[in-house]
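In keeping with the milestone schedule agreed at the kick-off meeting, the structural modelling team has produced records for the first pair of proteins. Each record is given below as a sequence line and a structure-token line. The laboratory manager (R.T.) confirmed that both were archived under the project's standard naming scheme.
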Amino acid sequence: MAAVYEEALKKDIAAKNPVGNYVLFGDDTYLINMYTKKLSSLIADSDDVFNYHKFSGKCDLQSVYDAAVQFPMMADKKCIIIKDYDYQKADKTDFERLLNIASEDFGTAVVIFVFDSIEFDHKKDAKAKKIIAAAEKSGGKAVILNHRRTPELVKMLCSAAIKRGCKIDSSVARYLIETSGDDILNLTNELNKLCHYANKGTITKETVDTVCIKSPEASVYN
């Protein structure tokens, strides 16, 4: 199997029963962090010092493994997060340890590998491909979380505006994306400003021009 996309991860979260280990990567930092929180919250609360463990990129992999094999305390599973482990700089022994962790179905633990600021080229990088294959062997998934396409963003903005008591037409939502870019975090911030300005009214193109910061690309085009 190859890496999958957001919809496959949504199904796992909806089922509320993540199994195996996960690799989350892509070019959308907002989505990576959002799904890391959603996935991990199904397994253990972030305040649970016994069953929730988060490791940085310079962690000792033996400590990661030890945390994964220890039985959870008054819970069904433990959540282990490894964020931005620089596998490219790891020696042969550590890389093999990383693959062993990724490939093992711990049963009472789910390990989530998060690559946010570390480049993870699943198409050309042989090591990245091995990490993906290892996660799949455990019964888990490697998930690509790239910027959403414009139709998906339009739908998201329209729905989010309604939840905030406002209305935005799909053409205006598209205009917002064209002028402010497709980064979800930035779009969410801009929508919050628009809804505050509109005060439970309708958001128009004029509102966007008045309130929102245009992306450098849109400014140059204009």
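The second protein of the pair:
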Amino acid sequence: RRFVFLSLAFPLVLYYVTAIPSRNENDLSGTGISAPLYFMVGFAAFGAMNAMLGAGARIAGERQVGWTRQLRITPLSPRNYFRTKVMSGYAMAIVTLLLLDIAGTTLGVRLSGSEWLHTTLQMLVGLIPFAALGILFGHLLTVDAVGPTMGGVTALLSILGGVWFPIQNATLQTVAKALPSY
């Protein structure tokens, strides 16, 4: 339940709480982008990052109860195990993206079909480092540590990557552009 809340409901609630008061802002902080569009993309990215890192939490849980040890005696290859974890993360990320896209349209976001497709594909490609990070966390951290670590990493990368607000400082923009959360 926590995973679904963090991946779906939390970004959606944050989007409405942030975008509704500024829904008539058509040039957010001089970016030339409307506030509903900026926050829609930002919170969709935030939810998708959480969805991908969530695969790591499931790995940590399976490790704790001995399930991964049990899987080693089956014909399931490690490659297929990891592929399944990544694909389940992508499935949840796609649902998150769709929910935020729908939420954006309710606040007046209008994009062409190619712009919707381009934005979604860029986000899906940008999730590759988060899939790797989720797998790493799942193998290095305990179940008790993986949740706070995921939350902290996602929040830090979101802040530094400009997910929650436009970054105005030139030095911070350079840092932001180097991060997968940008």
